[in-house]
Amino acid sequence: MPSETSAAVRVLIVDDQSMIRAGFAALLDAQEDLTVVGTAEDGQGIVDVVRQTRPDVVLMDIRMPLVNGLEATRLIAQMPGTPPRILMLTTFDADEYVFDALRVGASGFLLKDATPEELTHAVRVVAAGEALLSPKVTRTLIADYAARPSSKRKTHLLADLTDREREVMTAVARGRANSEIAGELHLAEQTVKTHVSRILTKLSLRDRTQIVVTAYESGLVRAGE
User: Fold this and answer.
1) Among 37, 175, 205, 210, which residue carries the largest CB count within 10 Å?
2) Residue 12 bridge partners (DSSP)
3) CA gap 118, 134 in Å, rounded
């Protein structure tokens, strides 16, 4: 429940199925701390829609006609200023667009068969600036990078990081929360937050989801470790 001074999280729903849009809108609008500011059936003209509705979070279907969710995400991420967070929705736990969507700016990924509680939680997590990946998507992500030849790993990406920042990045990629990382590395939680912020700045990343992607792309973290 939001405080008297806090505003509800503004959500834009983009999906080509009217039943999905209506269902999600009803569910989210029923939450006191969430409000649906608009819906769209396609990614066409998405930049104008975002400017008009000013959402904090965009619930984006990945598979749509004309302009799909991947291209729409790319367009939103390139908007000047601070673009909204994007939570991708799919019916496939091994969607081939998953990795590209994360690379171009998506903050999270959730399957459409998620429970109402999982969906509302995901919107809140992404709105707070955290990353959100369903367990199935995370497993697929790890398997994909694990199968790549080591010669293709982008080790140069981490050249500017300190040893401590690499440790923190490794823990983030393994799904640890800041409080867990603080306990494992014997650091204050605020210190962990500072390290995460520096990693994002040095690597020009938007959020923790992209830290996970970069950790696997660079070879810093590998499946089974």
Assistant:
1) 210
2) 38, 58
3) 10
Relative to beta strand 108-111, strand 132-133 is parallel
Q: Is the pTM of this model over 0.90?
A: no
User: Which amino acid would we find at residue 149?
Assistant: P
Cβ 165 vs Cβ 195: under 8 Å: yes
For the record, the structure tokens of 205 come out as 């990343």
Q: Where are the beta strands (DSSP E) in the chain?
A: 9-14, 34-40, 57-61, 85-90, 108-111, 132-133
Q: Which CATH class is domain 9-141?
A: alpha beta
User: Distances in Å between the alpha carbon of 83 and those of 5, 14, 73?
Assistant: 23, 16, 10
Fold of 150-218: Arc Repressor Mutant, subunit A (1.10.10)
Residues facing 111 on adjacent strands: 90
Exposure string of 112-148, with b = 16+ CB inside 10 Å and e = fewer, is: eeeeeeebbebbbbbbeebbbbbeebeebbbeebeee
Count CA atoms within 13 Å of residue 38 on its CB side.
16
pLDDT in tens, 103-128: 777 888 888 888 899 899 989 988 88
Cα–Cα distance measured from residue 217 to residue 130, given in angstroms and rounded to the nearest whole number = 20
State the Cα–Cα distance between residues 191 and 179, nearest whole angstrom: 10
Q: How confident is the model over 139-183, as pLDDT tens digits?
A: 566 566 556 555 455 667 788 899 999 999 999 887 788 888 999
